Input
Amino acid sequence: MSSDITLEQLKERLAALELENTQLKSELSSNSSNTKPAESSNTQTFEPSTSLTLEEYTRYGRQLTVSQFQSIPGQLSLKNSKILVIGAGGLGCPALLYLTGAGVGKIGIVDDDVVDISNVHRQVLHDTTRVGWFKAESAEWYLRRLNPNVDIQTYCYRLDPLNAFDIFQEYDLILDCTDSPHSRYLINDVACLTGKTIVSGSGVRTEGQLSILNFRNSGPCYRCFYPSPPPPNSVTSCKDGGVIGPVIGLVGVMMALEAIKVLTGWYTEETFKPFLGLYSGYDGLSQSWKCFKMRGKKKECIACGDASNEGKLTRELIQSGAIDYEVWCGVINYNVLKESERITAGQYADILGKFKEDGHVLLDVRPKEHFSIVHLPHSTSLPLDKLRRISDKAQLPFDTDKPVYTICRYGNDSQYATRYLNDTFGFDAKDVKGGLYKWSMDVDDKFPTY
Amino acid sequence: MSVNIKLEFLGGLDVIFNSERYHKVTVPSTNASTPLILRDLIKYIVDNMIKDPKDIEVFIENDTIRPGILTLINDTDWELEGEEEYVLESGDVISFTSTLHGG
Ligand SMILES: [Zn+2]
Output
């Protein structure tokens, strides 16, 4: 009897080794062919599976036995699915982690960004040794070791109106893990026109949101919820607003679960109810999850509504570049100053030497949370939003007879502050180009960047 | 008749309301014969709760809730409830959440 078990174990081991062998071969052959769009269709054809390997029974055993997962048919649905994850950051990493672990057949990863050390507190597929790698390739490096059964395809460039349609057509489900309104509208429009469901997540600071959009072409889309974009100054990114790692991580993990539910048929056109989930990590002394019941598909929607709608989007229209998503979403224009109103970090160092610390005023216009991390010792904190509320010169909290200079993190808000000071009070203020970041790069390499 | 409403400012909107996410307010009636509607509540919020006039544009655009903010009536999208014409009842929970974009 014991010899029977040994034989079975040997067979299992043999099957696993054969699988590994196949995976390694395909990894080797596709090694250099996974970054250019033209080559993305050269990957091996995707044959639907009707059975699981012995290794897969064991690997997925713990989810197979959960009734909601729907056993072997559920696992086969995942195995025969192709999903596209756009953004391998704070949302994409945890979503990819669980979806690769769960055994989705093919996963595409789109991201043109590279790993920065400030990403790794939340972007859990990347690590300190892979700073500078393309995020998509760093994610792939980790995921191949996690589950060699999954076919990973990377796209190390930005999704745009020209390439989006061809990429989307290769996949069944889209995960929107991006970080700006203009990418979210582009993903939405292309998904509606190619008939793909989107699992959408977002988050900043201590809160996150979760939704399923264009569900099987019958649920509402992003434009049904948000027909017009928010004013650009109301949009906060993780870079500017900050984000707590586990908050965005939870949303990414929830996206993975929603993707599994969509792929295994947990929702149907009859049972699906449009929703928007809102997670708050710091809700008073507690954490909270609210799930709002949302509107259905809107007939007049230009992305998912009737084809006869005025302004209805089409593939041709989008690919022609007729819609400039960044302009439509009003990407902020930071060039608001004349060249004579600006100085470099090096020039400011000379001014500091000449006027000394008390012979001029350096206004640091970053939010107070940023100021408290690090600042130049002689600078005065006056956050931009606070400055803009002051219209009476007497209320300015600094000596207005001295020359005024403004500084911020990267030299964006300082331009607005200078514009405001010069226009409102007739000052001759100047901003430090590139902000504290350039100060650290060009003048004082001991000054921390964050 | 006045109505008691619980307000929620979510998704970072609390910054213009003293950094408090939850508020309980009593909206006084303006005219005994017409019931209070959501439009009256929005006007009440703008007139009584937003301290700095410069914060109004964070909340309102073209006389209505600005794009990028969702309004929920008892956890349901206001579009399903009649939007600004919704007739308020004491005990209603009205939530406003700005859309998050980061990822
Ligand atoms: Zn729509």
Summary: The domain at 3-98 of chain B is CATH 3.10.20.30 (Ubiquitin-like (UB roll)). DSSP finds two helices and seven strands in chain B.
